[in-house]
Write a structure and sequence with these properties.
Layout lengths: L6 H15 L12 H10 L5 H15 L2 H6 L2 H7 L6 H19 L13 H9 L6 H12 L8 H10 L8 H11 L4 H17 L18 H7 L4 H5 L15
Helix pairs in contact: 1-11, 2-3, 2-8, 5-6, 7-8, 9-11
Length: 252
């Protein structure tokens, strides 16, 4: 039965099905600059995308540029990013990150040097900074520098556990390693795997009340088997083949 497929085969099947279900992505244009990706992802922890964007805009409106953010009184920076979950914690973290970037570049604020570094070196340098974990570092390295790494956010982690790509008790940090080992070291594959599972977790495989009848993964998903039993031929035939824009726009 498909439900007993080895985890690595489920991971690849997940990629193939979601790559057909959702619009494919390219590596040509990253969504944000490396600095914005890094700082915005720090701001995004346990925060909605709208509040993250508001905090980022208010920060630069208040202090002008990264030099201004670094020089700002920490309490004023915390006030500017007050729409985030923990502004009093994030403000000094952002300033420390900016300080380390400035030191690395000899006084500038950019991450261009990461393009020439090996993956392991870039990952180590990023995760050594306060407030930057594997997910944030992976987002920057994959989206902006096309490094073969895989960001695992809450949506990717949840789907991987429900389907059976990783163990039910595997942490998000462990999932970064396990899923990456199961996929080709190809930045385009990894980008699409991340984004498609992110969209899937936002729109179908929700934390509560997942829309399992609409899900193209039902034929091998452990969660579906547990809650609905084996998918019938009729249920599989009725599964949509592609995302319908009538269901709503896909998340950022």
């Amino acid at each position: 039965m498909e439900y007993t497929l080895p985890p690595a085969e489920k991971t690849w099947e997940n990629h193939l099905l979601l790559n057909a279900f959702y619009p494919p992505l390219t590596l040509e244009q990253p969504r944000r600059t490396p600095m914005r990706e890094l700082i915005s992802t720090i701001l995004s922890h346990r925060t909605t995308h709208a509040d993250e964007e508001l905090a980022y805009d208010r920060m630069l409106e208040a202090f002008g540029d990264w030099a201004g953010v670094l020089a700002a009184p920490t309490t004023e920076l915390a006030h500017a990013i007050r729409t985030t979950r923990w502004p009093d914690t994030q403000a000094p973290r952002i300033q420390e990150v900016l300080r380390r970037i400035q030191t690395q570049t000899g006084g500038e604020f950019h991450l261009d040097f990461l393009a020439d570094w090996p993956v392991e070196q870039g990952m180590q340098w990023l995760t050594d900074m306060p407030g930057i974990g594997l997910k944030t570092a992976s987002l920057v390295l994959l989206f902006n520098f096309h490094k073969p790494v895989l960001p695992v956010d809450t949506h990717v982690h949840r789907i991987a556990q429900r389907v059976g790509m990783i163990g039910p008790k595997a942490s998000a940090d462990k999932a970064h390693q396990v899923l990456l080992e199961q996929l080709p070291k190809d930045a385009l594959v990894l980008l699409n795997f991340h984004k498609h599972n992110y969209w899937h977790g936002q729109r179908i495989c929700l934390f509560s009340k997942p829309d399992c009848p609409k899900c193209p993964l039902k034929g091998f998903c452990n969660y579906y088997l547990e809650h609905y039993g084996p998918a019938t031929p009729e249920a599989l035939a009725a599964t949509p083949k592609q995302w319908d824009t009538a269901w709503g726009a896909l998340p950022h």
